[in-house]
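Researcher: Here's a chain I'd like modeled. Treat it as a single chain, no partners, no ligands.
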Amino acid sequence: MKSEFLIGTRGSKLALYQAELVKAKLAQSFPLFKFTLVKIKTSGDMIRRSTLDPFATKRVFTKEIEEALEHQEIDMGIHSAKDLAAELPAGLIIGAVLEREDARDCLISREGKKLSELPMGARIGTSAVRRRAQLLWMNSELLIDEIHGNVDTRIRKLEEGAVDALVVAHAGVKRLGLTHHVTEVFAEEKFYPAPCQGAIVAQVRAGDKETRELLHPLNHNESAFRVACERAFLRKLEGGCQLPCGVMTYLDAEDRRVTAAGVLFSLDATHRIEARIEASSENAELAGLRLAEEILEKGGTEIIREMRRNSKS
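Model: Modeled as a single isolated chain. Structure tokens:
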């Protein structure tokens, strides 16, 4: 057995926080081993404009880390679970899902106002089509500006007056110690989170039994179940990083039941399909598939078909 394990991560503050968290947990469980962070620049770190293709791959923030993993340059890659593609590259698997943070989105406004208190024509910054669709569904008078950068960069742009408010993941704000900026946290049933938002995963080579065993103590069963369910939901919708869909999941371990609810919007935010299911907690992926199938049957198929037509034109 080797004595040093290399942990691949992006170099942003949030990514390093997540990787350091994994490193600390591993070091605590296995004090005789050395764990070293390897910073890897991804294409997502260099791109400053999002694609509007709703079926585009999510690998923009993971591809280079996954390639390093495939080439055995690192032993594991640490990711925000929502950045992973719905279909992982052959030979790579999720080795552990850490206990999930808050999955909700939150509002940060320059004047401390809640969403309902913002004036007509207020400019809200976000690069996520999912957030844009939900904001416009709630208030069609809002102006949505595409804004990029890490959380602290976005907050700086807000303070400089580029926008009146931001919508970001609450988990990232909490992990960076920036919750004093938050003016409103959205209820999940009113503002659906992205699939797997708030979860940190460690990705490994399927054949690397040694590293998989090291990660086993870090795996949080409820979080792993919810991530598997939500990934199956996204996979059934054939979605990428810009599919305007959201999902929330609740696991009742005592009753061995899972409740899942999801939503799919049209790109122009004029149509919304919502579904909710309860299922046995014995099969996470089956629950996610069932939820997606309900949305497709209720009109989601036509929304997806229209998106595909638009993406090809």
